[in-house]
Amino acid sequence: MPLLGRRAVRPVAAGLGLAAAVVFLARYTAPGRELGRQLGRLRGPLRRLEGQLAGVSYRLSGRRPDPMVSDEVLTERIRSSLGPLEKRLDMPPIRVTVADHVAALEGDVPSLLSAGEIEHEVRGVSGVRGVDSRLQLGLAEDARPSAGRARAAAAPSTALRRLLDAARSAGVGDENAPKAVGSVLATFAERVPGDERAQLFGHLPDDVRRMIHEAELAAGHRAGEGREARSVADLVGAVTQRGHVDPARASAITEAVLGTLRQLVPEEAGDVASVLPRDLRELWIDAPGG
Predict the structure, then answer these.
(1) Measured between alpha carbons, how far is 279 from 54 in angstroms, rounded to an integer?
(2) Which of 12, 122, 184, 268 gets the most CB atoms within 10 Å of its CB?
(3) Angle at 160 between CA 217 and CA 145, to 5 degrees
(4) Please, is 224 exposed, middle or buried when counting C-beta atoms within 10 Å of its C-beta (0-12, 13-18, 19+)?
C-alpha cells in the first residue's frame, strides 16, 4: 500500500477504535450505563426547553407557529392558549376537540362576554380555520375553581376530624368538641419542653395548631408558661375548667384526645414520653385514642 494510503487509514482506524471503546463503556460498564441514564433523564427537559425557546423566537421575530399541523397538535395549542384566559375568568377548562382544523368548544361559561372572549382567543390560534361554539350560559358559582379552593380550605383536615371524633365519642357534644379538644392539647403542651413541643405540633396541620393557639389565648397565656399540670389529675382538672366539660367525662375526653394525638404523630411518641413526668407518661403511652 502506498505511504499516503497507510497514513490515511491510521486516523480512520483510530477513530473507529475510539467509537468502539465509547460504545463498550456506555453499554457494559456501570459508570457508562449511569451516564446513559442521566442523559436519558435530560432529554424530556431539553425538548421542553427547545419548545419554549422556539416560542420565544416566534414572538420576538413577529412570526406565528406553523399553521399546517395535525389536529392533535392544534388541540394542545388551543388548550395552552385558553389556560390563562380560563384562569382570569375563574372557570373550569373548556372541552376542545379539533377536526380538519375546526375547533369545537363545549362547556359552561358565566356570561356572553366571556363566551365571546373564549371564541376570539381560539380564532386567533395559528392553524384554526373555524370555531364551532357550543358554549352554554349558566356557570354555577360552586363550579368555579375558586369555589373549590375555598371549600378545600374550609374543610377540616383529617387530623382535626379524628381529634373531634375522639372527643365526641367520649361524650362531648358537637358544639363543645372544638373547645374541649383545644383545651386538652393546649394544657398538655404546657408540660412538653419547647423544642419537643415544636417538633410534636410541627407534624400537625394548620387547623389543629390554630385550635391550640386559640385555646392558649383563651387561657390567657402561651404554651410552656404554666407547666402546672404535673399529674393526670392536674391535667384533667385544667381541661375541665378551660374546656367547660362535664367533670365526670373530663378524664375520658382527655384520654381519647391524647391517645388520638399520639396515633397522629407516631414518629414523635417516644420522644414526647421521655420528657413527661411518670404519671403523664403512662397516660400518654396507654391512652386508647379514637
Answers:
(1) 69
(2) 184
(3) 105
(4) middle
Q: What is the DSSP letter of 272?
A: H
User: What CATH number did the domain enclosing 88 receive?
Assistant: 3.30.1340.30
Q: Is the pLDDT of residue 176 over 80?
A: yes
From the CB of residue 67, how many other CB atoms can be counted at a distance below 10 Å?
Answer: 13
Interval 205-241: pLDDT, tens: 988 988 888 888 777 654 444 445 678 898 888 888 8
Q: What pTM was computed for the model?
A: 0.49
Q: Are 277 and 179 in contact (CB under 8 A)?
A: no
DSSP code per residue over 24-85: HHHHHSHHHHHHHHHHHHHHHHHHHHHHHHHHHHHHHHT----S---HHHHHHHHHHHHHHH
Q: What is the pLDDT of residues 50-77, one digit of tens each?
A: 555 654 554 455 556 788 899 999 999 9
Q: Number of structural domains, the chain?
A: 3
Domain that holds residue 243: 158-286
Whether residue 57 is found in the same domain as residue 118: no
**Residue 227 resides in a domain:** yes
CA pseudo-torsion sign 214, 218, 221, 227 = negative
Residue with cell 375541665: 240
